[in-house]
Structure formats: structure tokens, C-alpha cells
């Protein structure tokens, strides 16, 4: 057969084609062996391979063909042997062919022989590879276990071997195909069937679901190289383009692999045209075709995005074909095109060395991106903002576009999509981190320099116009040419404009003192040119200052908006806002400290992610000391926290204490000052040794002879020493420095003294005696202040006496009881122990173990508080009538400090027992409502909050009076009220009732901080199951009450926020029914309108709409009013827009019914009407309805 090479091997489309006789001299398989015959024939083939070399395939082709025919039935070992033989054949041809092809003496018969051997071996190897790949995929998909351990083991081993052999097969094919074997064909025209045979095998391997995994990277790269050779040498480019599109349509996971392949073919194999061909194929797809693609659209999108990161230069010539998708309906394709534009702008069209064409492309692409910041789809808007973030971070955005893009980003902070808001915050943070301006200067600081330089520019222009020759027309011509030149200069170099000061300008001018004299005309011309240069520089300086001022204004707008976003209910947005505040502070942006301070209360958030974000932010900004030594780090830490501690309130200090307790601090006290002791208050709970090691220094400096010179320092020192001990901290109220020092001193006495009650009794006696002595001696001008201090001392002693009894005395009683029980146990014999054990088992089953003893101790403490603390012989009882008299006589005792101290002390006395609380609760609420001093009202609210925690049943009837303070005319009182009520409600101390509508009103408070706290209240309340859902009907009724007189716009704003918490379908359905039923009881048109607006704010679906139809009788008679008709019409308009086709007719019918009822009913007389929201048809058209 070798001698007579009269036949040609034609690569078949299918295996069976080789069994049929085709054209003349076409090879046909003569004998298909049975599976039993294959082993012996394979042995013969092995021997022939050793003796004859790779051309033995010509004689033994039928043997290999028979293996393919029986591939599903023969053993795996047989197929592996066959694969090994074929690999040896292909390798043999790769070794022998180069010398034969280079010799140039190859005869026609030899050429045919080598060509047949190549085609036969490649065909057999590719087909066997396809079969083995199919078997491998089939085994990985099948989940049923194999029978017997041996088969399972063998199966797994075979699969593993194929994973390793796959790469070997591809390397053999690459080695052979890289040779110039095209000369074996006539006219070097390789038949399409041969190319398809190789490429089909490669694409088959790419369809493996695991081909994209990291472990398969060598195989993936080998496939890409084989296909690269076929594309470059065997005219497979068009076929590869078609196949890539097909793979993307059917295998979404191959988007990254295909992008890598196309990138390799373009860059490594020089076939750059393939990028354009594939882009044209994707660009020519219509919206209808993309809609039918399904997952293929996502694959196209991912492919284009990935390809742009690999070969952005190759995509520029054909990027216009993709721009048509920006007008299409597919959001995924719009995202992909925008990402391509962004990558091209960052990687190619950036820098100062662009030519005119490159600048034009850059500006066109940036304009396109800006348009899609307002895309209809939120995902596109978010991705465009993220693309801009990458552009800004890469410093690829021209300076002249900073202000414009930043303004668009600030506008997106109000987007309804959370993802868009997050992306906008990230973009603004990138602007701050990479801006060419000075963020340290505010717009106010920049105003005067800008006015000064603008005036200077105007003067220079006037001087130029006065000295210019000729007529007015000539002056205009000169100015026009100058402006055109400047504009051209800006457009060509608008990345970072150099700004020189006056000194630099002078230094940059050439010194001409040593030059020879020039004629008068030339000297005048040079002077004019110098003045023109000065004018240009001044214009650039003014423009730079204008851009800087505009940038500062945008930054200030962004900071104001993002600071309010710190209290959003969405965790991820809050985290981004915190990160923005950190970035702004790190770059010393003006007013950035406001956001840092505002985020501080979030350290108490119940959301662990938000709390952690705040802790990490403060750790990054202030608690990350730099220095080589411990002392240096301590100094850095104190300096960084000093800014926050200036004018810090007690609440701020407590928040910092919580943050510091979550951060490891290792420093030594370096200097004693009021600010540093405040810091030690925060740190001592986390690092007690820091204070203990410097206790002597603290006492000698802060509590020494000069204690009267600085009570604030003394107070903070006492707090620091108190915090060393293990105890439960009680919140103290902010007050003048002496009073807070006194409170902490009493606290320290009760924590550390042996008999604190006796010590404090003597202290009260001595203080009262000193007061009487001063009054007797004529010190009347200060008697109100001294009396206030005495009453404050009484209140502090009363409060800490109760705390001492409930904490220390109760603990001591439990300790003694434990010792007594332990002693009795030892004295009992074994019999007694068994008997007690049986009794204790019964008590454990009833849950009474230890309860009776603890109840007895608690009752004992309560009895002491009730009968002994205010008994006639007790020092505290002497001052109670005085406290009542001062609080009940505000006209006589009008001193601010005295009234404040008396009210606070009375509330502390009321903490002693329920009897004292009941006797004086009315007086305390009278003070709350009638006092003209905001500080008294604020302190009283805090005191009543503490009383509510201690005696909830007594305070429960007075709950409306507490809520009434939310409407107080003073902002500080409202702030205190919302803070106290938030704690009481969220800790389930106070039941949430309809009065919570007063909290809702604070969502519109003019004070931003109060608005933030009200928003945070509802955010936290929404975490409780059905809390807001249960309250909404009552809130609507209270806010829509005609007597309240709330504006319609304010009502809508509040309801929009509250209804955003209603996300469950069942809640929506139930609220629809409840609100519709209220139409029956509503009496005024305004109430009908408010109910209709509330219904329109619900996220209604089919079930909610069905319930609305069922309640038709409740509101149908009100449809004549535009204020009712318009919101209800908008509900159906929104439902119809997003409804399925089968429901659109139903919604259209309902719209027709409502419209007919609206126009046929008789409305109220005009005299009874109020202004409505507008013409009904206008409202309908604004919601997408047709006439």
C-alpha cells in the first residue's frame, strides 16, 4: 500500500463517510475490526511504528478507525494506548517533516504520502480527543456512584489521566501545525475540512464547564495557541469570529476565555483585524435579536468589558459600531459599551501627547459617558459613575471637565437607587483624593483672591485697549485673536494648568540687559508681546481660581448631602458615607470635621457593620499614632485627638470612650491637662494600667491645693479614677464644671469609701452650716448660687445612696448569704444532705431555686428606700420640702442655676421610692411644661426618662406629656426629647403609641441634627417586626387632622419616608384595606386627599390592587375631587406600565372606570373647595397615561 500511493485521504465530515466509496482514488476503510481483535492489531501497529516510523499510519489506519467506531464499548485502557500511539505518530511527523520540506527534492508521490499521513494522524487524534473529552464531561456530570470500589477508583484515575493528557495532545498539534505543511497541498490551499477538523476539536475542549478554572490555565492557553496558529496560517479568521459569537451565545462562562483568546490572536499572532470583525458582529445585532439571546447578552457584555482591558488600542477603530447599542433597550450592552469607553479613555486616550484626532475622540467619548449618568436604568447609571471613578483615579479626566462631572455626581446623591448613591459617593471621594486644586480652602476663602485677580485682569485689558493702535474694529480683532489662542491653549493642555505667581512670572521673563540695543519699533513690538503674555498668564490664573472656587462649592454641596446620608437605613450607603468623610478629612477638606463629628453617635448603632465602620474610621484618623517610641506615639495620639476634644460635650466623650475601648492603646501619660485627662477618661476602661501607673501625678496636680482654680480638671480626674474600678456606669448630665466635679466626687466616695452614707451626711451638714454662716455674714449676692450648689449636693447624695444600696449593699447581702449557706452545708450530715437534695430537686423543677432569697434581699433594699432614707432622722429628708418649694415657686426663685439644680435634685429624690415619685410627678411635669428656661426643660426630660426606666407604671399615664416636648419651640429641648424618647422606645421601656406622629413631624425640623435623629429613630424602629406598619394608620389620622393644619407638601414628604419601610406584600395589602375604610369616617376633602396620597405611596402589586378594587364602595363617591382622583389614577398608571400583557387590559378598564366616575359625579361646590394639585389630565399625562 505504501508503494502504490494512488489514493488521497479526504477528511470526512463524519466517521461513517469513510465507509462509503466517494470520488475516484478516495481512501475508503476496508475492514472495521471487532473489539476483540483490537488489542492484537494495536500490538502490530506498535511494532510497525517502531520499524517504519509515523508513515505506518497509512497501513494501520483501519485499526485506529476501528477504535473510534467502538469508542463507547472498548476499555479506557485501550483508548489511552491508542491515544499514546497517535501522539507518537504526530510527534514523529513533526520531527521528520522539517528536513523533508526544506530539502526541496520531495517528489509528488512522497508529497502525497506525507500529506495523507498528516491528514490521517491529525484526523484520528482530533476525533479520539473529542471522544475522550465527551467521556470526561459525562463522568463529571453523572452523580450516581459506580458499582464497586475498583471501578470507581479506575474511573477516577482515568479522568485524572485525561486531564493531564489533554495538554499533551494540544502541544503535539501546535508543534505540527506551526510547520510550513501548507506546501504539501496543491498551491498551498489547505482544505476547509482539515481546518474544521482541528478547530472543532479545540472548540469542543473549550465547552468544558471547568475550562475557565485556574487549574486548567495551561490547557486553556494551549487551545488558544492552536487556534491562533489556525487563524494566522490556515485562513480561519472568519470561522473563528463566527465560532466566538456562537460560544458566547450558548456558554456565558466563556466570556473571559474568549476575550483572552481574541486578545492573544490580535497581539501575539498579529491578527488585529479579528477584533474589529467580532465587534462588528456584536454591533450589528438588533435589540430584538439581543432580547432573544437571553444569557448571551450578558456574555457579550462581559466579553466586551474584558476585551477592553486587554486590547483597548485595537478596539478604537471599530468602537463606533458599538455605540449604536447605547440607544438600545439592553442595559447590559449599554454597561459594556460604557466600560469599553472608560477603558479606552484610561489606557489610550489620556495624557498630554494626544493629537487632534485623539483629543476629539476623547471629548466625544466623555460626552457619551456624561449622557448616561442619567440613564433610565439604575445599573447603567451606577456603572458609569464607577467608570468615572476609574478615570479620575487614573488621572485621565481633563481638568476642564472636573466641575461639570462633579456637579453631575452630586446630583446622583439623591438617586432612588442605593447602588447609584454608593457609586456617586465613591466618585466624589476619588475627586477629592486626586484633585489638582486646593481642598483646604473653602469657597469663602477663595472669593477675595478671585475678585482681586479678576479686577487686575480687567485693568490689564483696559490698559491694552487704550494703548492699542487704530480703530475700534482693530481692537476687537486683536482681542478676538487672543481669546481664540487662549481657548486653543486650554483645549490642548487642560489636564493640569500651571499657575505662576507674580514672582515666578518675573523670574520667567528673559533678562535683556546684556543684549545689544534694538531699533525703537522692534523694542516696542517686544514690549507688546510681553504684555500679551502677561495678559494670557493672568487670564489663566483667573480661570484657575474660578475653577477652584467652583470645585470648592461642589465639595461643600457634596459634604452637606453625604453628612445627612450617615443616618440612612441602608447599611452599605452609611458605610460609603463614613469612608467619604474619612477621605475628606485625610485630605484636609474644609468643613470635613463636621462629618467626622456627626458620625460619632453611630458607634452606638445596633448594626454591627455600621459600628465597625465608625470605629475603623476613627482608628484610621485619630487612633493610629505614628512614632518610633511609645512616648512619640503617645504625643501623636494626643495631638490627633485634641481637635475633637475642643468644646467636646459629655456625649462626645462617651462616644469616644466607646471607640477607644474597641481599640488597643499603649501610651504613657506625658502631661497633665484638662484635655488629656478627658482622653484618659476614654482610655482607662480599655487600659486601666495607664491610669494606675500615673495615679499619684493625677491626684497631686488635679486634686491638690489648686483644685478651686479648675473644677473641670478636678471633675475629669475624679471620673478617671472612678473608672478604674469594676462597676456599672451611670450616665451623668452635663452641667457647670463645679457641679459635675461635685457629682463625680460623690460618686467616687460611694465607690471607694468605707461608710459613704455617714461621710456624705457629715458633708451635707457642713455644707448647710457654711451656707447659713455666709447668709448670716451678709453674703446675699451669691446666696442663690450657693443654695443651688447645696441642692445639687443633696440630689447627688440621694441618687448615689440609692445606687449604693442596690449595688454594693445588695452584693454584700448575697455574699453573706452564700457564706452562710456554705457553712450550713458543711455542718449538715450525709442524711441531711440527701433530704435537702430531694427538696432542692423539686424547687429546681418549679424554677424557685435562689429566687425567694433574692426577692427577699431586693424587698429589703426597697423597704430601706421607702421608709428609712427619707425618715425624720435622716439628713436627706430635711431638704425635700425645700426642693419642692423652690420648684413650685419659679417666680420667687428665678435664678437659672438654682431652678436647674432644684429640678434635677428633686428628680434624683424621686428615684428613691415610688411614693416620693407619685407625690411629686405632677410638679415635675408642671415644671417641664411651664418653665421658661430651655435648660430646665431639657434636664427635666432627661430626668423623666430615668424615672420612666425605674418606675414605668407610674410614668405611663404621662407619656403624652413627654411626646409633647417634641413640639417645643427651643431646638435643644426638641433634641433632648427625641434622644430620650428614642432610647426609651427602642429599649422597649415605653410602648410605641400614636403620639409617635410627633417624631414623624421632626423629619421636617429645620435643625439638620434633629432631622437625622428622627430618621434614625424610624430606621431603628423598622427593625422591630411590624412596628411602623401598626402605627401608620394612627400617624396618618393625627397628621391629617384639620386642627393640626399641616401643609400638604409636608404631609407628603413625611408619608413618603414612612411608607418606604413597608416592603412586605401582606402589609401593603392590609394597609390598602385599612386606608380605604378610613374614607368612610373622613369628613373633610383634605383628609380624603391625604388618604389617597398615602395609598399612592404604597409599593402596590396585583394583590394590593385587588384589595383596592374590593374597597371601591369606600372611596368611589369621593372620586369627583381631583385631589382624590389623581393619586388613585397614578396607582393604576404605575401598575399598568410594569404589568404583564394579560393584566394591561384590566388596568386600562379600571382607569376608564375611575375617569368616568370622576367626570360624571358632582363635585363639591367651589366655595367648599381648597386648591388642588393641578389639572387631572395634566397629572395623568405626567404619569404616562394617554388621552
From TrEMBL:
InterPro entries: ARM-like (IPR011989), ARM-type_fold (IPR016024), CND1/NCAPD3 (IPR026971), Cnd1_C (IPR032682), Condensin_cplx_su1 (IPR007673), Condensin_cplx_su1_N (IPR024324). This is Condensin complex subunit 1. Regulatory subunit of the condensin complex, a complex required for conversion of interphase chromatin into mitotic-like condense chromosomes. The condensin complex probably introduces positive supercoils into relaxed DNA in the presence of type I topoisomerases and converts nicked DNA into positive knotted forms in the presence of type II topoisomerases. It is found in: Chromosome; Cytoplasm; Nucleus. One of its GO terms (cellular component) is nucleus. PANTHER family: CONDENSIN, CONDENSIN COMPLEX SUBUNIT 1. Its main location: nucleus. It comes from Pygocentrus nattereri (Red-bellied piranha). Keywords: Cell cycle, Cell division, Chromosome, Cytoplasm, DNA condensation, Mitosis, Nucleus, Phosphoprotein. Residues 78-240 form the Condensin complex subunit 1 N-terminal domain. Residues 502-532, 811-838 are annotated as: Disordered. Belongs to the CND1 (condensin subunit 1) family. It comes from the Eukaryota. GO terms for biological process: cell division; meiotic chromosome condensation; mitotic chromosome condensation. Residues 522-532 have a biased composition (Basic and acidic residues). Pfam families: Cnd1 (PF12717), Cnd1_N (PF12922). One of its GO terms (molecular function) is histone binding. Residues 935-1095 form the Condensin complex subunit 1 C-terminal domain.
